[in-house]
Amino acid sequence: MKTQNPSQRLRAERKSASGKRCVPTSGSGTGAGVFLFLLASGIAGTAAFSQAERSDVAAGAKTYATVCAPCHGGADSHATNLSGERFLSEWSGKSARALYARILSTMPQTDPGSLDTQTVLEVTAYLLTRNRQTLPEGTLTTAKQLDSIIIQK
Q1: What's the half-sphere exposure (Cβ side, CA atoms, 13 Å) at 95?
Q2: What are 78-124's pLDDT values in tens digits?
Q3: Which of 99, 133, 145, 150 suits 90 as a labelling partner, its CA being 20 to 30 A distant?
Q4: Do the beta carbons of residue 61 and residue 29 sit within 8 Å?
Q5: Which residues in 29-58 are b (16+ Cβ under 10 Å) and which e?
Q6: Has residue 22 been placed in a domain?
Q7: What angle (nearest 5°) sits at the alpha carbon of residue 1, between those of residues 64 and 22?
Q8: Structurally, how many domains does the chain consist of?
Q9: Separation between Cα atoms, residue 35 and residue 134, nearest integer Å
Q10: CATH number, domain containing residue 138
Q11: How far apart are CA 35 and CA 55, in angstroms?
Q12: pLDDT, tens only, 18-62
């Protein structure tokens, strides 16, 4: 398998399970862009917003927007199983570490396991916040921190 740097991966054309083309966007993104993404997610303007201000959640939102959203849908997409009732039905009662492990080993679909552990922690923090889960204080730095988080409806 040819190794690609993150910029090359972001530009690579992807296909989702449905066969539709998924073309990630590239670009540096800005703090304002991340805020707008969080706002569209329904995170900004809620009690969870203080968590959304965390650097790990903001970094996860940025990665989601560029790497995940082309196949899983944007923050306002109801077609994704990564937010809302569909997410909670699948993940309720499971540890956040199980979600982390799934992302780490299976994503992105076109290059499973290619995301580094810190990036996956950030995406996990973003998805948990997007789904109104409470994160531990401070920035997530290890997967072990996710063991104590049980996803709740």
Answers
A1: 10
A2: 557 898 999 999 999 999 999 999 999 999 998 999 999 999 999 99
A3: 145
A4: no
A5: beeeebbebbeebbbbeeebbebbebebbb
A6: no
A7: 35
A8: 1
A9: 19
A10: 1.10.760
A11: 12
A12: 444 454 444 444 444 554 555 555 544 444 445 657 999 999 999
Does any domain span residue 53? yes
Indicate if the alpha-carbon torsion angle 54, 76, 47, 98 is positive or negative: negative
Question: What are the helix and strand counts (H, E) for the chain?
Answer: 8, 2
Instruction: Flag whether 131 is in a domain.
Output: yes
What are the residue ranges of helices labelled H in the chain?
6-11, 31-41, 49-52, 55-63, 69-72, 84-91, 96-106, 117-130
Could you list the residue range(s) of the whole structural domain that residue 128 is in? 30-148
Alpha carbon of residue 104 to chain centroid: 11
pLDDT score of 135: 93
pTM of the predicted structure, to 2 decimals: 0.69
108 upstream amide cis, omega within 30 of 0: yes
Please, are residues 64 and 127 in contact by the beta-carbon 8 Å criterion? yes
36 vs 42: CA distance, rounded Å: 10
